[in-house]
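Give me the fold.
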Amino acid sequence: FKLRRAQESLRRDLGREPKLREVAQELNISEDLALAALESMRAPSSLEEQVHQDEGQPVYLVDRIKQPDTGEEGRVLQLALRQLLSSLPRRDQHILAARYFQLKTQAEVASELGISQVQVSRLEKAILLRLRQLLL
């Protein structure tokens, strides 16, 4: 919420798209944290998506994932994520936990919930969209 408001405020004040540094300064956070927040607002990508080539070899998104930050910023992000997830309905929490933490397939989640895989896919997409909107 704060990031989006800061961007809009700076956009109005500056008459242009604000730079990452300016957004970070406005919120009194590091540029890395501001960048992480901005990236979290993007539509989900496939982990197998090619992001660029390095010396002729493809580099995939899964190759670029950082290890969890154990510093203060990492703890702040974990706390924010916990609060955000806890605000979701139980079913939505179950779907996300099963899909992203227990690494279950949509078919497995569908079987647990007594719905179709297509319904799980639609629900998951809607949940992720809602989370992204809450972050903006």
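The two ends are 5 Å apart (CA to CA).
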